[in-house]
Amino acid sequence: MNRDQRLYDLVQILRDGRLHTAAELAERMGVSTRTIWRDMAMMAATGIPVEGERGLGYILRTPLVLPPTALTQDEAEVLGEALRAIADDPEHPRARAAKTLLYKVATLLPQAGIAPR
């Protein structure tokens, strides 16, 4: 399983509103606890409302709900290309926002084949 699919699956697990330990999530995902720690840090850094501490557990504090959006493959590719172009330009005032949005889109729409760098 690639990282984007794992992140998507982790969000789906956390949507139940319960506290989940890193060990539990690692077992379910087939990865190490350390990988879960990194995944949770990355999700928090991109704005996904995950909270937690090592040894205690992780929880999604606010519901993560997006309105239904149907994208064609071409639309998804254009979205990814546009976000990458902005994210890769350190002079662009919204480069950081584009990078975090790219991670979110890749996580939430893994079937679109958008891969952040």
* N-to-C order of helices and strands: HHHEEHH
- Shape verdict: globular
Please give the radius of gyration in angstroms.
15 Å
SS-derived structural category: mainly alpha
Please state roughly what percent of the residues sit in beta strands, choosing from under 5%, 5-15%, 15-25%, 25-35%, 35-45% or over 45%: 5-15%
Question: Main sheet, how many strands, which sense, barrel?
Answer: 2 strands, antiparallel
Helix content: 40-55%
For this structure, the quaternary state is single chain
Which strand order do you get reading across the main beta sheet? 1-2
Q: Give average pLDDT, whole number.
A: 85
The number of strands is: 2
Which stretches are low in confidence, meaning pLDDT under 50 for 5 or more residues running?
A: none
**What's the N-to-C terminus distance?**
17 Å
Contiguous helical run count:
5
Keywords:
single chain; 117 residues; mainly alpha; two-stranded antiparallel ribbon; 2 strands; 53% helix
Brief description of this entry?
The chain has 117 residues and is mainly alpha-helical.
Q: Can you describe this structure?
A:
This protein is mainly α. It has five helices and two strands. The chain has helices spanning 3-14, 22-29, 33-45, 73-87, 95-108; strands spanning 50-53, 57-60. It is globular, with a radius of gyration of 15 Å.
